[in-house]
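Homework help board

Subject: predicted structure for assignment chain

Our instructor gave us this sequence and asked us to write out the predicted structure in token form, then describe one feature. I got the tokens but I'm not sure how to describe them. Can anyone check?
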Amino acid sequence: MSQRKAWQAIVASGDRHGIVFEDDILFGRDSAEIFADFSWMPQDIHLLRLETVLRHTVHDAKPITTILNRDIVRLRHVLLGAGAYIISAHAAAHLLEITAKFTYACDYVLFDPTCDDFCCFDVFQMVPAICIQSAVAKKPDLPSILGPMRKEMFYKGRVRFIQNLSVN
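My token output:
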């Protein structure tokens, strides 16, 4: 639901694009300079992943644009993770419509074309990525504030799911 709140704020802002970060993101070199001015951001891109999950990416060889030695390329395979991305207000509004009731995790809806609720926008990637979640980077000194809640929420969700099965 925090992703939806971020999308609502982006739509309400009146800006063409917004940026979404999870609470445990680590930033790479030049991030302050890159995030200080978004004039480099192509206007027709609706989803730009900024993070790495330390997996090989398959993407177009020719970048759409380059910012401080970081290419913006179109992804050509599924790469999950919604820890850091730029999203257009248009895409955010569309996502708010299609996720009024969530049936899939947010990163599937954003980045997986095989997902029934996929947003249907081309996905681009910053290469090399400028962000990484602390768990992926194996940095225990910056834990997620949501981490302890996730286990409890998962448990409650599983109990609710089982209860719903029992009722039906």
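Reply (TA_rk): Your tokens look well-formed. For the description, you could write something like this. The CA atoms of residues 84 and 100 lie 22 Å apart. That's the kind of observation they're looking for.
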